[in-house]
Amino acid sequence: MPIDDRLQLALDHFARAQARLVEVLAQPEDDFMRDALIQRFEFTFEAGWKAAFRWLRARGVDVDEDAYSVIPEAFKRRVITDEGGWGQMRKFRNLTSHTYNEMTAMQVAAFVRADAVRLLQDMLDVLKARADE
Q1: CB-based contacts of 112: which residues, under 8 Å, 6+ apart?
Q2: What 8-state DSSP symbol labels residue 3?
Q3: Among residues 124, 92, 103, which one has the least CA distance to residue 11?
Q4: Which ranges in 1-82 belong to alpha helices (H)?
Q5: How far is 47 from 25, CA to CA, in rounded Å?
Q6: What burial class does residue 79 get, using C-beta atoms within 10 Å of its C-beta: 0-12 exposed, 13-18 middle, 19+ buried?
Q7: Which of 35, 55, 65, 102 has the fewest CB atoms within 10 Å, i.e. is most exposed?
Q8: Is the Cβ–Cβ distance between 55 and 131 less than 8 Å?
Q9: Beta carbons within 8 Å of 56's beta carbon, 6+ residues apart
């Protein structure tokens, strides 16, 4: 199946966001860079689940356009392999986008460095590989 234009746009957006996240991860962490890391994490998480949404919709899957609905469906269809990790990302994204707490920010930054960047890249790789299915 040829790739849908909206899916291609979402994949391009996700890939750019992921590249920007990796870029900030290469910097030494201080308060400023931690805030930049969290902002880029939020942005990349949003781009990721929206790309998954577009991938699902292009295959005729009737799923609501929210992360809470998309993540389980993406897991079911093997677009993501670690549903728990994605659930943790969703939880951290919600925490950081609604309030600021320095201890939480440190936990989120550690999670992004240890797990989130890999989870996001894994899904991006799968979406790209399966875009023409």
Answers
A1: 21, 25, 37, 38, 41, 92
A2: P
A3: 124
A4: 5-25, 31-58, 67-76
A5: 18
A6: buried
A7: 102
A8: yes
A9: 63, 70, 73, 74, 77, 79
Nearest 5°: CA angle at 123, between 120 and 128? 125
In this prediction the pTM is 0.93
Tokens of 105: 């920010």
CB 130 within 8 A of CB 79: yes
pLDDT digits (tens, 9 = 90+) for 35-93: 999 999 999 999 999 999 999 999 999 999 998 899 999 999 999 999 999 999 999 99
At the topology level, CATH places domain 5-129 in Four Helix Bundle (Hemerythrin (Met), subunit A) (1.20.120)
Nearest to 85 by CA among 114, 107, 116, 106: 116
